[in-house]
Please model this.
Amino acid sequence: MSRTLFLPILAIGATLLAACDGLAPAQDRPVVEPARVAPAAAASERSQSIRWNETAQQFELEGQPLRAAKLWTFDGSTDGFVVTGGEAGLTSGSGLSVVQDEADPILRSPSGLNVDGSVNTLVLVRLTRAAPGQAWSGAVHYTTLNHGESAAYMALPIQGADPAVNETTILVYDMANLKHGGADWTQSIIDQLRFDFEDSPGGEFLVRQVAIARRPQTAVAMR
Model:
């Protein structure tokens, strides 16, 4: 067989092998960082007045949809969330994996949110604990156009705190009633969120959805 005939045959064979593997060329495939947290297939869901409606893709309070100014579902993307003191990656069909490797690990939202805190007073985080932690915190801090991150401006969840391993909860933050900061949230334009799930390394979570939403004026008590 001549060299000129042999080379086309090799090219055809390589094409057929790629087709059999069902793989697109490497440069065409999306690059997704591997997640270290395994999806919790049989995670239990804590009973709460606020729930996630998977079909409608929205949070609900006692069956009524909550209007979200921002909603992140981590469907094929980290949605701009980053971790300091740990690692973040995608878990197919589950959300954003957060592995906390160092002391005081932090998860931050994208900046530039431009959310009116006077009408959007709920912060919601639906997550599953995938590994036990050592020092639960649950605090959420935030930045505005007037101040950066500070212990002087923070809230703790009124629902869903400190889930057990393989338990899914919704951390509910009433930002109109901060732990520290008075009425600052409701008088500000919110630029960024920061979540401190735990103060020590070791914890692992699947963050499934995050939202900043309006609390209906007729809402039932959530505590």
